[in-house]
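Figure 2 data, in text form.
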Amino acid sequence: MSPNNRPARQRQTLSVFRRRATLRRSFGLLSDFKYEQTRPDIFYGHLAEDTVGLIRDIYAGVRGAGQDSGQEARQTEDQSEPLRGTKILDVGGGPGYFGVAFDKAGADYYTCEPDVGEMAAAGIKLQTSVRGSGLDLPFLSDAFDITYSSNVAEHVPDPWRMADEMLRVTKPGGVMIYSYTVWLGPFGGHETGLWQHYVGGEFAARRYEKKKGKPPKNRWGESLFNVSAAAGLEYARKVHGESAELVAAFPRYHPWWAWWMVRVPRLREFAVSNLVLVFQKR
């Protein structure tokens, strides 16, 4: 696809999701962050429902991107449940909340998670939960209609190797959705605070341990890394036209009228918070 056609393709890809990307949704998701450590059932339950809606809309948008208008793309979604019967891989799916939500949507859901403790944390048992690393996915190539990862890239030392692996196991014509927390955004430090990571990741970790009397779940340099928006867009440029086509890049938790921030260097590092890259495999 030529550079001149990319903005139109992005608009078409996000045409279905746009109606969901409201300020009310943004505030609702933001208010749930306070429950991440104390009430994970609330935090992950709501996030899982939102994630299903996000992927359903994006998948419907990609399938309708060859049509002439957002209205026709919405009609495509209304004709049938886009996720019903689709084979989905969630890399780093965690304790099972996402599996329950995708099952309700009729998807054939699989998750790959390296941490046994994380998999069992909520007591949810999934028959399609596989223990393994996102850096070396234990699946055959071209196996899934949709591969997805949410807030995992910042927890692995080589996030772009994981992205390559996700593309490998995606079917030709399938969709890969890569969503991650930008380090310089307000939530880059995760539970260690809204500003402390700007001083430094190690400083934020030590300060958290001093205040809470225990080390943070996400330890800088071990299970939390500096991943920028620029690095994600550079990766997208690298694979675009070779193994996949970048069909959308937008801030996950922002209302639609703030999506333009992704296009502004430097500003996007601080304002985007969570970057979503959507690829369609060639």
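Caption note: The chain has eleven helices and seven strands.
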